[in-house]
Amino acid sequence: MSFEANTDLEGGPPTAGAPGSAFGRLVDGLNAFGSVVIGMVMVLMVVDVLMRNLLNQPIDGVAELVATSIVVIVFLQLPATLRHGRMSRADLFIDPFILQRPRAGKRLRAVFSVVGFFACGVIAWATWPLLSRAWGNDEFLGIEGIFTFPTWPMRLVVLCGAALAALQYVLLAIEDWRAAGAAA
């Protein structure tokens, strides 16, 4: 028996909260910006390879920029991934459990969302002092004299992305808890 609840490509993805809410537009906008960053990183890497091989002039700082942008992309797109039900999870257990026992399954999924809220909240809480220090001490990444850039923008994105993901987990938990109350 196959349980493929998240593969309906014709219907729209499930969303927690109002689809046209300001929060939803913010999360989806950050997701779109994350996609733009992916495109910029791809262009940067291609240009670096071309410059390195054709002109023997690599672009300084590409490795640092790519490594930093991966973190930025993850936290820009994490809240939207949750919002649209695209987060990786073990559907092998939870989906059949929800089908067999809807009330208990949705409450269990709400508990999982509370755990996700806690995890993202810890990330946001732990990032705050790092952001404060990066801003206050003018922390930079790279090699001085060759290529450097400030670390605070990356820390800010991690803080905001984790906080928005935590809020999205709260919305998912509330949605599942209400659905469990309405389930037979």
The total beta strand count reads 2
Q: DSSP helix count?
A: 5
What string, H for helix and E for strand, traces the elements in order?
HHHHEEH
Q: How far is the first residue's CA from the last residue's CA?
A: 23 Å
Based on secondary structure, the structural category is mainly alpha
| Strand content range | under 5%
Number of domains: 1
Which term fits the overall shape?
A: elongated
Major sheet, described briefly? 2 strands, antiparallel
CA gyration radius, whole angstroms: 20 Å
- Low-confidence segments: 9-13
Helicity range: over 70%
Overview of the molecule:
This protein is mostly helical. It has one domain (22-182). Helices cover 71% and strands 4% of the residues. It contains five helices and two strands; from the N terminus they run ααααββα. A two-stranded antiparallel sheet has the order 1-2. Strand 1 (140-143) and strand 2 form a beta hairpin. The model is unreliable at 9-13 (pLDDT under 50).
Features:
184 residues; mainly alpha; single chain; 71% helix; 5 helices; two-stranded antiparallel ribbon
Secondary-structure blueprint:
Layout: H1 22-54, H2 62-83, H3 91-100, H4 102-136, E1 140-143, E2 147-150, H5 152-182
Antiparallel strand pairs: 1-2
Helix pairs in contact: 1-2, 2-5, 3-4, 4-5
